[in-house]
């Protein structure tokens, strides 16, 4: 029996954001950032962006991290992952959720997604209260 | 309230429209005018998922022509979008958009397209549509975001012209 394919992450975002986020993960987590593939919407129409995203996702389980749900990246991700149970879209990507993602790739896909969404939400905070 | 923005943008609903223009114009409704989209329930569902909470209507060009006065006189501020110039031209036919301004927001590169602006790539057919819009009394210009430079139609038609055209 063949080994199950590992979970991969694709970050699709505006301008240079996706590449910058992968590099930020690499700075903190080293080669674990290889599990993330950056994709920019720069200069791409909707059809091209969907094609590039499909190519980046491949055949295994994948989490597509999107910066802005109501943007072209969000629309492309929703289109590509529609009716595909092993493709999950997570909107509002941030660095803490990506770091948690690359350290827990061994989890089942649904558990992993629930975890990174929780970590991403929990990281948004105002540590010093208003005075 | 009037229709506060007529825009041609192949992405229809996306960040520049919802956030960029939406922040300035405060629309209460987006009308997406596209024949294919008006017949595609699953694609409409995608747009509703992507822009959850926005009031959206999906109509064909013919329905838009029938309902444009309704939107112009409704209390909601409306942004009307088409995916391509051909649909806007058909909407404008017979002077329906005379005196209105049409904003060109984004048509990306593709086969037989030449670059006019970094976010605008047109075919010969698009150029015909642009001229036809002007003949219908529509003021056409390109501007991807509210604070970006506005480029008038004459400049657009000059840009990207090839000797063979």
Task: Report on this structure.
- The complex is a heterodimer of chains A (131) and B (165).
- In chain A, helix 2 (46-57) crosses helix 3.
- The mean pLDDT of chain A is 94.
- Chain A is built from five helices and four strands, in the order βαβαβαβαα.
- Chain A is globular, with a radius of gyration of 15 Å.
- With 131 residues, chain A is α/β, with parallel strands linked by helices.
- Helix content of chain B is 39%, strand content 24%.
- Chain B has a single domain (3-158), classed as Fructose Permease (3-Layer(aba) Sandwich), CATH 3.40.35.
- The model of chain B has no long low-confidence stretch (mean pLDDT 93).
- Chains A and B meet through helix 3 of A and helix 1 and helix 3 of B.
Distance between the ends of chain B: 41 Å
Structural class of the secondary structure composition of chain A?
alpha/beta
Oligomer status: heterodimer
CATH class of chain A: Alpha Beta
The assigned CATH architecture of chain A is 3-Layer(aba) Sandwich
Q: Give the strand line-up of the largest sheet of chain B.
A: 3-2-4-1-5-8-9
Number of helices of chain B: 7
Secondary-structure element series of chain B = EHEHHEHEHEEEHEEH
What structural class results from the helix and strand content of chain B? alpha/beta
CATH architecture label name of chain B = 3-Layer(aba) Sandwich
Largest interface: A-B, 16 and 21 residues
**CATH class designation of chain B:** Alpha Beta
Q: What value does the average pLDDT of chain A take?
A: 94
Write the CATH fold name of chain A. Rossmann fold
Q: Which strand order spans the largest sheet of chain A, edge to edge or round the barrel?
A: 2-1-3-4
| Total discrete domains of chain B | 1
Work out the strand percent of chain A. 15-25%
What's the name of the CATH homologous superfamily of chain B? Answer: Phosphotransferase system, sorbose subfamily IIB component
Q: Note the total helix count of chain A.
A: 5
- Main beta sheet of chain B, described? 7 strands, mixed
């Amino acid at each position: 029996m063949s080994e199950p394919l590992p979970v991969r992450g694709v970050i699709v975002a505006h301008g240079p954001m996706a590449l910058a986020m992968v590099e930020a993960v690499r700075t903190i987590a080293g080669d674990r950032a290889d599990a993330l593939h950056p994709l920019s919407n720069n200069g791409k129409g909707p059809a091209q962006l969907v094609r590039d995203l499909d190519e980046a996702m491949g055949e295994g389980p994948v989490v597509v991290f999107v910066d802005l749900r109501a943007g072209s990246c969000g629309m492309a991700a929703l289109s590509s992952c529609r009716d595909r149970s092993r493709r999950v879209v997570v909107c509002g990507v941030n660095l803490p959720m990506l770091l948690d993602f690359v350290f827990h790739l061994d989890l089942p896909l649904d558990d992993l997604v629930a975890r990174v969404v929780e970590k991403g939400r929990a990281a948004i905070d105002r540590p010093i209260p208003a005075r | 309230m009037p229709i506060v923005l007529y825009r041609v943008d192949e992405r229809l609903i996306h960040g520049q429209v919802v956030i960029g223009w939406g922040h300035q114009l405060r629309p209460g409704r987006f009308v997406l005018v596209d024949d294919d989209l008006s017949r595609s329930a699953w694609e409409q569902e995608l747009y509703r998922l992507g822009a959850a909470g926005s009031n959206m209507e999906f109509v064909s060009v013919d329905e838009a022509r029938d309902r444009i006065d309704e939107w112009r006189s409704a209390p909601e501020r409306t942004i009307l979008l088409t995916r391509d110039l051909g649909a806007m031209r058909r909407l404008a036919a017979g002077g329906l958009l005379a005196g209105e301004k049409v904003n060109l927001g984004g048509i990306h590169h593709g086969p037989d397209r030449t670059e006019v602006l970094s976010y605008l790539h047109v075919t010969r057919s698009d150029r015909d549509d642009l001229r036809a819009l002007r003949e219908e009394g529509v003021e056409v210009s390109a501007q991807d975001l509210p604070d970006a430079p506005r480029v008038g139609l004459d400049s657009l038609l000059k840009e990207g012209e090839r000797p063979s055209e």
